[in-house]
Amino acid sequence: MAKRWIVKGGESSERPKIYHALARVVDKRFAFEAVDKEQFRIYFRMMENFTGCRVLSYCVMCNHFHLLLEVTPKPKKALTDEELLARLAALYSEAFVATVAKELMEARSIAAACLAEDAEAYVQRIHERFTYRMHDLSEFMKTLLQRFTRWHNTRTNRRGNLWEETFKSVIVEDGLAAKTMAAYIDLNPVRAGMVSDPAEYRWSSYGEAMGGGAKGNGKKARAGLVRALKAHKGYAADAKHWNEGVAKEYRMLLLAEGVEQMEAVVTKAGESEVKVKRRGIKRELAAAELAQLERGENVAMGKMLRCRVRYFTDGAVIGSRGFVEEVFQKLRERFGPKRKDGARKWRGMGEAAAGVLWSMRDLKKGV
Fold first, then answer.
1. Stated pTM of the model
2. Of 74-78, 225-229, 271-275, which one has max mean pLDDT?
3. Where does the chain have alpha helices with state H?
4. Cβ neighbour number for residue 274 with a 10 Å cutoff
5. Domain boundaries, the chain
């Protein structure tokens, strides 16, 4: 079963290309302390600046992470030398960038002096040494995981691969699917019982958006969530929209989906029911705040997202029926001749979204 699902045609700008990417630590051991989580965030922000991709939502847990990542299209015009060096400065040392700058300057000087096509081709090759890694999901994840592994292994005096397996990725449609996935990601620490409110968790997009300042990563986290919720409406990743209704809409979504609840469990003998409390935001607090926000959300969807729904990690492609069918046609060679269509209706834990969200995979167990 494929772990990675990637849409071909990275240079197309017809609609956003959004992925839910995740990876777990080997043996599922709890390896990440606060300093690890902070460093992982630093690294993926560096990768954003270098690759031009955009993190819309994220959560770094103790033994795994989630990224809702938009792979932006390659620019139609090639990067200038200055733009390339600015990208390199996000990921490499000053000395390394200075070396590349000198190499470019010398090549440009030769090209200007003798109009040599060879010199111009050499300049292009210098660019291509780095640009092939930009605007690409696989390259983003490969560099992020490798860099963090080296840093973590040095800090903890360990050797070997840090990750359990190759990263997983799920293709996510902009609109309802992206909005729902962002909330699913931000509610991870609530489902795990680590916090009672997603705003309290530092290493998540919502925690950073609420706790960060007007500049820096707080602003970047707000811009990412704006894009996650409103890309289908044409909104750019701009934090200025956060207080124009987006913050309220997302808070209402998180409260509705993250509230704790009591569930009845019937014993095998069928004689009695046991009340089990699911971890989440305190019911009284959520109800009071939702009343103030004039709540109007889908309760069934909220209940679904309080559970660990396999479609979010193993569904391959998530979105409307039309979106999944469109991706299916682009990836037709990955399926056998008997497969006639792509979209599969959700069931099990994901049944609340059936007919609204569809997936490429027809999951049968643990959904």
1. 0.82
2. 225-229
3. 34-51, 81-89, 94-114, 117-131, 137-156, 176-186, 188-191, 205-211, 216-230, 247-258, 283-292, 299-305, 311-314, 321-330
4. 9
5. 18-42+51-72+163-359, 81-131
